[in-house]
Amino acid sequence: MVTITIANVPMVTVAGFEWPVPTHRTIFSIPDLKSKPEAHGLRRALAELKIAKMKQSVAHRIFVLSPAYAGGERARMILRDQAQFPLARELRGKSGARIADVFTFLSGLYFRGKIAYANAFARPARGTSGVLVITPTRGLVDARTRICLDDLREFAEVDIHEDDPRYRMPIERDVRHLAKKLPAETEVVLLGSIATGKYVEVLLANFGERLRFPADFVGRGDMSRGGLMLRCAADRQELSYLPVAGAIVKGKRPPKLAPRRYAGVVCLSAPPSAKGASSS
Predict the structure, then answer these.
(1) Which residue intervals of 85-164 are DSSP H helices?
(2) Dihedral class, residue 279 (left if φ above 0, else alpha if ψ from -120 to 50, else beta)
(3) Rounded Cα distance, 1 and 275, in Å
């Protein structure tokens, strides 16, 4: 004996849809909900869930940072014999200065944002550097590498160009070695312009679909990118990434970021009056 109880269920409205309905049709679907103005919160939640799943699916992530220009006004400032600010003295010292600090001084906000962001979100495999910097003559170097005055002078003599063997040969060597060393599940994120062949070509040739870039870089200039990355590092909010292969390099300019002040995101030694920063 099987007893079936029939109960009266009150009508319920969810995001503009009523339940139950007499025809017993599908009550609602995710596409239906996403099309409703009342469901904008759901659309955002689904997008955030998609990004979270994407991040969780990658076991390891390393960052490759585009270089700062070593032949500009800031480089000449730090190379002067009369330079006595802390970073200049450190660069002349026996141990030298970290390349990340030197490039931050040369580039300003853009490189400061890149190094802060990369340090916050790198997840390298054991024995692998999480943050690598492209250099004019030394290929890829760990961001913690210390350089001296002569190293910076060497960088200043070479303008990064894919046809210059002084730049091309070291970067090709290091990228090939890194591609063989990295575990297959490692994602490589380029923090730099994808619209130039100066380093994208060699990176793409070796990393293929593993090479990514922040989706929010599209349409932004260097200063905006730097500010965005500083904000993300301070808030511990990682960006989403897109494959470099086949990517759209130009897009609509996003709204300007509201000004914010940061404390303790990155420490660098530089005179407050330094101007003329530039980067690649």
Answers:
(1) 86-92, 99-107, 109-121, 149-156
(2) beta
(3) 88
How do residues 223-268 score in pLDDT, each as one tens digit? 888 999 999 999 999 999 999 988 665 555 666 666 666 555 443 3
- Residue that the structure tokens 């409205």 belong to: 13
The encoded tokens of residue 266 equal 């990155």
Nearest-angstrom CA–CA distance, 32 and 15: 9
The H or E element spanning position 227 is helix 222-235
Return the bridge partners of 14, or none: 17
DSSP secondary structure code for residue 123 in this structure: B
The arithmetic mean of pLDDT across residues 67-74, rounded, is 92
Residue-wise pLDDT for 13-54, tens only, equals: 444 444 444 444 444 344 444 455 554 555 555 555 555 555
Q: Which two tokens stand for residue 44?
A: 């955002």
**What's the CA angle centered on 227, arms 71 and 57, to 5 degrees?**
105
**Is the pLDDT assigned to residue 56 strictly greater than 80?**
no
Beta carbons of 126 and 183 less than 8 angstroms apart: no
Asked whether the beta carbons of 79 and 154 are under 8 A apart, the reply is no
For residue 216, give the 3-state DSSP assignment. helix
Residue 110's Cβ-side half-sphere holds a number of Cα atoms within 13 Å equal to 22
Bridge partners (DSSP) listed for residue 190: 64
Closest CA to 187 of 55, 62, 50, 66: 62
Specify the DSSP element, H or E, that contains 60: strand 60-65
